[in-house]
Write a structure and sequence with these properties.
The chain is built from twelve helices and no strands. By secondary structure, the protein is an all-alpha fold. The longest helix has about 35 residues. It is elongated, with a radius of gyration of 19 Å.
Length: about 250
């Protein structure tokens, strides 16, 4: 169980890092802009499409395409929770104060969730609202929040983004540097967007990559049952956190 005192200390340190506030605000602001931008592009695509293409038009999938860029900032929040301490050289003092490394990792994971979840909720809700409102105003099919796909995006989308923040946290522990962890996270998370230019492995990456599978399940386009598609990212993040704990436990700061 995470002690309140430890969590409070983590919050004090984390909130003093200016970049965390910048990333959080940037994620929300970018969500608003990308929601409008991709909705505008979707309107053009819809109006110039064939009747068959219009039947296949998915308002949520088209309007929420920007989530693959916002997730990079969300992952960065997780990275900074730990890499800021390695960068400033305060990690040894923190470990001495907390005592147990497992407790410290749990506190940082809790801090990541408490920070990333509200940012993720705000980002998803804002992107969804702006994109679907623009589609509706343009006379193009849109999705209401109460529809099944809308509910899945609004309820599950922020959880997926928060898991991606924990992935960033794990990378921070494993690589112990902001630049290295952010670069690896960016390359990893953007792979599904490049699946079209990956001969042979493209379809696998597009469907089964940890940050792609849950969103395909949200859109209702994944061939696996929803539970299995969501389970891909859950298991992946759990494995990454275990690897982070083992490295943190066995290596001196």
């Amino acid at each position: 169980m995470i002690e309140t005192q430890t969590l409070r200390a983590e919050w004090t340190k984390f909130s003093s890092v200016r970049a965390t506030m910048v990333l959080s605000l940037a994620a929300v602001a970018m969500s608003a802009f990308l929601g409008w931008m991709f909705a505008k592009a979707s309107v053009i695509d819809y109006l110039t499409s064939t009747p068959q293409e219009r039947l296949d038009f998915s308002p949520v999938e088209m309007g929420m395409r920007g989530v693959f860029l916002v997730q990079l900032l969300i992952a960065g929040i997780g990275v900074l929770v730990v890499s800021s301490e390695y960068g400033s050289g305060t990690m040894p003092a923190t470990m001495a104060a907390v005592g147990r490394r497992g407790k410290l990792l749990a506190a940082k994971a809790g801090m990541t969730v408490l920070t990333a979840l509200p940012v993720s909720v705000a980002s998803v809700v804002l992107m969804f609202t702006i994109s679907q409102s623009h589609l509706a105003a343009s006379g193009v099919p849109y999705t209401m929040p109460g529809e099944p796909i809308g509910l899945r995006m609004l309820l599950i989308g922020p959880v997926v983004l928060t898991l991606i923040a924990l992935f960033g946290l794990a990378l921070g522990f494993l690589l112990r540097g902001t630049a290295a962890a952010v670069n690896v996270a960016t390359a990893f998370l953007l792979l599904p967007a490049l699946s079209d230019v990956m001969p042979g492995v493209g379809p696998f990456v597009e469907s089964y990559w940890p940050n792609a599978a849950p969103f395909k399940a949200i859109y209702g386009t994944h061939e696996l049952p929803d539970v299995m598609a969501y389970g891909i990212v859950v298991v992946f993040v759990a494995v990454m956190m275990v690897a982070a704990f083992v490295r943190f436990r066995d290596r001196d700061a």
